Amino acid sequence: DRYLSGLDKSKRSFSERIRRLSLGFRGIDEEFLEELMVALLEADLGIKTAQKVVDEVENRALDRKLSSFDEISECLVEVLRDMYVSYEDEAMHINEQGVTVIYMVGVNGSGKTTTTAKLTKSFLDEGKKVVLAAADTFRAGAVDQLATWADRLGVDCIKGRENGDPSAVIVDAARFAKEHHADYLICDTAGRLQNKTNLMNELSKMRRVVEREIEGAPHEVWLVLDATTGQNGISQAKIFTETTNVTGIILTKLDGTAKGGIVIAIRDLLGLPVKYIGLGETLEDLRPFDIDSYLYGLCE
Ligand code: GDP
């Protein structure tokens, strides 16, 4: 299965770390807990989340008097799962009356444009009508890149001039999507992080203008994060969540990293759901995120 094989690198390296722990295993002692901490940090859980996981594994193991390594590694997977499901996720906000508007936000290079194309493909596969807004007018080439995807996918893409006002593109696109009775309008927005105030102003303007065109829009704001940037990605995510109302995360390039723990760290630190994961560069390489498939086979 492509889902599992895309995550091979990440899972294999985690399994190897866990297997390494089993070698000198003599029970839950200081040494074991330290080594577990190191394994979790290597998987990119970050210090805070990793410490929480270690404490919880220790508590549960002592409570239940777990002694074999297998029991403890099962307990570890259970703790990771519980950490993820401790937040209740809302279903995707759909505009039943008209166009559902999705904003894609994130820094340049995170995979925003490619992910927009992948998402379009998955909505088209469900028989939905999609319109795209190329509102990333600041990254050179981003507009053309999205327009090329749109051509390949056979969908309309509303464009603006390079360095033009992204909000103007969004207004045009919203009107076009309404007129053409689209189900979804996906907006590839600009991701400049150099200046938080600028980013905030840009994003809030984009929200204001679209609200006037389509009630309740944007219905979803998805932050695209490159999983290979590890803890940096978490800092970026914090800036975006402090700046605008992010409703979900799309984690890209998980195929290229051995550090899948970032999923758990994001959840623990930001409470946001991971909506999709990116496992490659083609249109098919986007998967709805599912915590059970994600953890499956982790400690074998
Ligand atoms: P943007 O600047 O955020 O719009 O980023 P792009 O969509 O241009 O993506 C940057 C690079 O990352 C491109 O070469 C993409 O093909 C690549 N990319 C995006 N998503 C993934 C993914 O899930 N896996 C891999 N391996 N590459 C990806």
TrEMBL record:
Gene3D superfamilies (alphabetical): P-loop containing nucleotide triphosphate hydrolases, Signal recognition particle SRP54, nucleotide-binding domain
Keyword Transport attributed: no
EC number assigned by the record: 3.6.5.4
Keyword annotations from UniProtKB, A to Z: Cell membrane, Cytoplasm, GTP-binding, Hydrolase, Membrane, Nucleotide-binding, Receptor
Alphabetized GO MF terms: GTP binding; GTPase activity; signal recognition particle binding
Any coiled-coil regions, as ranges: none
UniProt protein name: Signal recognition particle receptor FtsY
Native species: Amedibacillus dolichus
Lineage of source species: Bacteria, Bacillati, Bacillota, Erysipelotrichia, Erysipelotrichales
